[in-house]
Amino acid sequence: MTQSLTIRRPDDWHLHLRDGAMLQGVLPETARHFGRAIIMPNLVPPVVTGADAAAYRDRIMAALPEGMDFTPLMTLYLTEDTNADDLAAAHASGLITAVKLYPAGATTNSASGVKNFDKVRPVLERMAEIGCPLCVHGEVVDAEIDIFDREAVFIDRVLDPIRRATPGLRVVMEHITTADGVAYVQANDRDLGATITTHHLIINRNHILVGGIKPHYYCLPVAKRESHRQALVQAATSGDARFFLGTDSAPHIDALKEHACGCAGCFTATNTMSCLAEVFEAANALDKLEAFTSLNGPAFYGLPANDATITLTKGDPVTYPAKLETGAGPVTVFDPGFPLHWRVA
Ligand code: DOR
Ligand code: ZN
User: Fold this and answer.
1) Which residues crowd ion ligand 2, with CB under 5 Å?
2) At 340, which CATH number?
């Protein structure tokens, strides 16, 4: 039985760090284990220009504790007014790694997102030309579409038409939650990848709703039925290079999670590697963990894997604090609901 596993240092291809006191509180939780992360731009106001991204990157680096080695990979928030020249310059200089598409109203701080996809077509064409990937929050927002169907409908109505209209555009389907998402990625062997979160590999919708509502399991896209979770585990543990880790670790203070209109987001930065090792071991796929956390993401983005390694060891259950105290308030750490035996040495 494997008791120790050394892998390349992982990266997180979808992360919310926020700003100010929250940034200060959560950044070390990621930087402890991860070499790089794609930083989501849904601040208030959002990160829409190259200048915004440069300023945000500087605030992140200023918040990084002495001695920690971490590189934020910045993104721009796509709006109907995004300036393609500004975007292209930010990409050419290495300031940004990708651009994020939020359908307007789909999730936290997405009000400035895209309503009319035709309006962003020229920008998407420019991105295809310059090789700048598009990270997509793949949910339709139409009121008549059931929340559990929003990802599958988005693929048919929005994503597939965009990809057909924009050959060469590299797309990351962020935080896929359905067997439909897995199948769409598997059926397309060019220019398409997908991130999968830690929590969507662990919880299904029953975990949110059975026996009382569990606000700390509520995120968007919302977790689906068990068969979808199983499809995600299969994809993540398969070694298929199109699937890689994007935790979508999304801190909100407890007062805003435990609320009549609770915020969406699970905070998994602290214990993600322990959770994933447990999931991969249960699937008999510990040998595929490194591909998922440390190799497939860099390969998709055309970056080298990290040189450094981390070692996970298995032993008595590891306990993590239930809450992270930040200057913005307490943030509940994701509870996988089973004991964790793997720790990062
Ligand atoms: O659960 C989520 N939280 N999903 C998102 O898409 C956004 C994120 C956040 O920013 O809190
Ligand atoms: Zn997110």
Assistant:
1) 248
2) 3.20.20.140
